[in-house]
Amino acid sequence: MHVLHTDMSEFDKEAEREKLREKYGEEQADREATEHMSELLLQGATMTNKHCDACGDPIFRQNGREFCPSCGQTADGDVPQQTAQAESAATNDEGTNDQPTTPRPGATPQPEQVQDHQGTTDPSPPGTDTADTASTPTAQHVETPTTGLADAQAALTDTITQLARQAAQESDPRQATERLAAAREAAEALDALRR
């Protein structure tokens, strides 16, 4: 009987270890996602009040393009490469007369302009952002960092407030701790922006 008790305690220890491994693995993934979002904010992206339909993470706006940094979907639910390829095909088939009638004029002209100036290459989203910045007039380039910085600070402040409220209302202590940790990371990013 004593042996059975020892086996049960060993089983419980192993089950507990597995739970802890899963928990820390999830927390590490959350930290990496938060770190990636902080990097985007530091690069001038703005966190919108919208959330991704696919994964639930916040939607970011950078250079007129809205996207989910976690799963890569755009605000319309398209994956960026698929959207760029569809736009390229539409531009080649129909010409440039249909550009003003596109449903998202702020997001679609930029990739088309890059393709017109650089040939038929299919740039990745970070490359597109760099090329768009280089092709914009200098007056817009000067205004964007100031506006982007203020927007990033406002978005971080809103996020911190929202996470703190959610943590206060959370009944599960682990969830509350995770929300507070995310709020702390957002506060650190906000502090870095203000320096």
Strand content: 5-15%
**Termini, distance in Å?**
65 Å
* Poorly predicted regions: 80-144
Mean of residue pLDDT? 68
| Strand numbers in spatial order across the main sheet | 1-2-3
Kindly provide the radius of gyration, computed on alpha-carbon positions and rounded to a whole number of angstroms: 22 Å
The figure for the number of domains is 2
Percent of residues in helices: 55-70%
The main pleated sheet reads as: 3 strands, antiparallel
> Structural class, from helix and strand content?
mainly alpha
Say what oligomer this is: single chain
Biased composition (Low complexity): 127-139
Region (Disordered): 1-35, 56-195
Protein name: Putative Zn-finger containing protein
Organism: Natranaeroarchaeum sulfidigenes
List the topology elements:
Layout lengths: L1 H41 L3 E6 L6 E5 L2 E3 L12 H15 L14 H10 L6 H11 L2 H32 L3 H22 L1
Antiparallel strand pairs: 1-2, 2-3
Helix pairs in contact: 1-6, 3-4, 5-6
